[in-house]
Amino acid sequence: MKNSTRLTINPHFHAECLADARQHWSVPAGYHQLDIFEMIWIKEGRGTMMVDLEKRPITDNTLYCLFPGQIHRMAAEQDLVGYKIAFSGDFLSAGNAAHQLPAALNYPGRGERIQVMRLNSEVQPEIEEVVRTIVWEYANDQQLKADMLHGLLRILIAYFSRRGTYDLRAPGNDEMVFSRFMNMLDRDFRSQKQVSAYAADMAVTSNYLSEVVKRVSGYSASHHIQQRILLEAKRKAITTRSSMKTIGLELGFDDSSTFSKFFKTKTGVNFSDFRSGWVHA
Amino acid sequence: MKTVSSLLTAHPFANAGSPACGASPLFRILWVSDNADADFGHLYLLSPGSHVHLPAGHQWAGYLLTFPEEMLLMTGCRHFHPFASFPAAPVVWHTAVNGSCNDTGRYVRRLIASLVRECQRPSHSADTLLPGLLKVLLVYISRFCQQPQPSEPRGADQHLFQRFMHLIGEKGSERKGIQDYARALAVRTDVLSETVRKVSGYPASHHIYEHMIRTAKQAAISSGASMKEVAYNLGFKDMAHFSKFFRNKAGMTYSDYKKAYQTI
Questions:
Q1: Choosing among A6, A96, A126, which should be mutated to test the B contact, i.e. which has the most B CBs within 10 A?
Q2: Region A102-122: what's the mean pLDDT?
Q3: By the 8 A CB rule, do A155 and B136 touch?
Q4: Are residue B248 and residue B192 in the same domain, yes or no?
Q5: Residue B130 domain-assigned (yes or no)
Q6: Phi/psi class of residue A203: alpha, beta or left (left: φ > 0; alpha: ψ in -120 to 50)?
Q7: Which residue segment(s) compose the domain that B131 sits in?
Q8: B139: which chain A residues are within 8 Å (Cβ-Cβ)?
Q9: Residues 55-114 (B) with a CB less than 8 A from some CB of A
Q10: Which of A13, A171, B219, B224 would be A175's cystine partner, CB 3.0–4.6 Å?
């Protein structure tokens, strides 16, 4: 037990102005897989934001939230003006073991779609103030720097959570079980593909787990497992040059024909067509 | 489970006299602006048990925020100066803030206004924003209150007291008795206890216990640890002993405390 949980900034937190990093940002082929959260605020700019398999035109005054594991790419048609703030889940929970991610960043809040918030003229000045303060604090070494950044980050996320598309009440038991399952899935899907294995790790029965997952998300637990594997396969197909065999192995398929068949039946296209479709798009 | 919005009260006040600032068991933050000059304000931090008198003859208006110690633990601000030294003695910190010439002053004023606004909202919606706002405000207050670096302690007694307090904060869980501390500081036990009492007004054991109870409370709030784990980590071998210790100091049992304040 630690006497007090001290926050550390490196490597858990990072903030920058987009304009400073333009060269880095518009690398043409640059699909980039995240290992932490990123909040990107585009104040002005035109271009395309691609997150996983979705493309969106970039518009002024938009706040994007990207999750660990997602692949993304920003193609700017003109100079982008804005800020990027990156942080890990650990930084956000500040060493609090029982801490749950805020609804907006937790699994029920992560739809299939890009998480964006269009800022109207009412909140825009407030968010700009918070973001600018974050960038300033990050660049300067004031007393309690990490605590300050943590507080400001929570404010920013609270604004993001106010889009009101989901439930802000404290999560119920079903939601807690579901998000624990999704967290474990994120960590273990490469090696563990049975619902019963996840249930055993969570010390619940398979039936109970399937029921809860179905109740919360509308899909079965095995569906989530399959979708998670497929998502990673697609991400790897786009971001790496590894062969299908290597990617299959990485995802826990010893036999590449099993992987190939799995990919084909679930997505409707075969692996190499999928890849060439994306790479040449 | 208590939420941030249920523990924090914030409201504006405006009257000819001074706001109710007698002694209270809660922490209070008082923002007063002078009606004559809206940009200029005074920020007061009142620790539990302290009171303040605003100079009479002015039209004061401003905001008053109140919260219990648990709020500091829930938002992870307990180790900030000046809260870390509480409850050595009731203290009032005061600083004048000029909002017209510096960004920090302006931002602090807007932060307090936002806190007051958020407190009026329905709790499930306020609770997303309040903890962050409060934490940022407390960091600013901590920066305002920052004393000159204590590199030059005023005397040998002060110096010994500081080293003693530092040692408690650092390794509070490994030492228990004052003898252990005296040995670590290479002074005689009676010298240490005499000095601590002289400088702080409290016996050494008071500071040691305060640190223990604070550590236990923090663990209950943020780590979800069971009473056994906490007791063991604080060096208690007897569970009943720890249980009684906690109940005496915190006013409720460990599990009630955890149920009431645990932040999930």
A1: A96
A2: 72
A3: yes
A4: yes
A5: yes
A6: left
A7: 4-145
A8: 143-144, 147-148, 151
A9: 75-80, 107, 110, 114
A10: A171
Q: How far apart are CA B218 and CA B240, in angstroms?
A: 20
> How far is Cα B113 from Cα B62, in angstroms, rounded to an integer?
9
- Is residue B151 included in any domain, yes or no? no
For residue A202, give how far its alpha carbon lies from the nearest alpha carbon of chain B (Å).
Answer: 18
Average pLDDT over residues A30-42: 84
pLDDT recorded at residue B209? 87
CB pairs under 8 A between A and B: 100
A77 to chain B, closest Cα gap in Å? 34
Question: What pLDDT digit, counting tens, does each position of B180-212 carry?
Answer: 888 888 999 999 999 989 888 888 888 888 888
Is the ipTM beyond the 0.90 threshold? Answer: no
**Which domain CATH number covers A260?**
1.10.10.60
Looking at A161, A191, A220, the residue that finishes a domain is A161
Residue B165 CA to residue B182 CA, distance in Å, equals 12
Same domain, A47 and A139: yes
pLDDT at site A3: 37
Contacts of A150 in chain B (CB under 8 A): 76, 135
Write the CATH number for B18.
2.60.120.280
Q: What is the mean pLDDT of chain B?
A: 79
**B69 and B31 Cβ atoms separated by less than 8 Å:** no
